[in-house]
Amino acid sequence: MVKIHGTEKIIQKTFELGVSDVHTISAEAIPIEAHLAKLCEEPKCDGYGQSANCPPYGMKSGQFREYVKQYKHAVVFKFDVPTEVLLSEERREVSRLVHETASAIEKFAINDGYAKAKGLAAGSCKRLFCGEYEKCGVLTRDGDCRFPDLAKPSMSGLGINFFELSRLLGWQISKITKESNPDDVPMGLMAGMVLIG
């Protein structure tokens, strides 16, 4: 675990939330690649165009690269998850947990004096929190998010290269697809982060 002065309490809180591992890295080390955000559109993710936190409505990767410059650190956490879960409908529950964890860390960091702390998570918030609604509240005329404390921007939609980020953190990661054999790749992971500045 990388320790950066001033974030020890946040790291401790993150472990208390039941994550498998957590690291703190320099915000400028976050690998951001515009072409990765375009993968949300082609091949089309079923979250594409569904919420204000996902492409094409969310922050573009170039904007995000500039946005990150106001932060010093990022607290990155993961949950180790069996591949068979990631290939099932249970994946949504894990994604929801990632959003909830990012939200809890964000709130804790804000209360600890990091007023601009910003959580990011894996997956589309529309599927996780507003699946029973036809449209995202922010994309309708009223403009209100139904779950503003839980819904976080999609890391993939921002262009974060999570495979490279995992490599930087020393986490083992394999690409898991519908064709993956759980016997060959028994565990995967899902992750989130909170920008601290």
Could you provide a short overview of the structure?
The chain has 197 residues and is an alpha+beta fold. The chain has helices at 8-16, 34-38, 61-68, 83-86, 91-111, 125-129, 162-169; strands at 21-26, 73-82, 118-120, 187-196.
Structure description:
By secondary structure, the chain is α+β, with helices and mostly antiparallel strands. The chain has one domain (8-196). It is built from seven helices and four strands; from the N terminus they run αβααβααβααβ. The chain is globular.
Question: What's the layout of helices and strands?
Answer:
Elements: H1 8-16, E1 21-26, H2 34-38, H3 61-68, E2 73-82, H4 83-86, H5 91-111, E3 118-120, H6 125-129, H7 162-169, E4 187-196
Antiparallel strand pairs: 1-2, 2-4, 3-4
Which descriptors apply to this entry?
single chain, 197 residues, alpha+beta, four-stranded antiparallel sheet, 4 strands
Estimate the helix proportion, in percent: 25-40%
Order of helices and strands: HEHHEHHEHHE
Task: Detail the poorly predicted runs.
Answer: none
Percent of residues in beta strands: 5-15%
Distance between the termini: 19 Å
- By DSSP, the count of extended strands is 4
Provide mean pLDDT, rounded: 90
| Helix-strand category | alpha+beta
> How would you characterize the largest beta sheet?
4 strands, antiparallel
Number of helices: 7
The number of distinct structural domains comes to 1
Radius of gyration: 16 Å
Within the largest sheet, what's the order of strands? Answer: 1-2-4-3
**Envelope shape:** globular
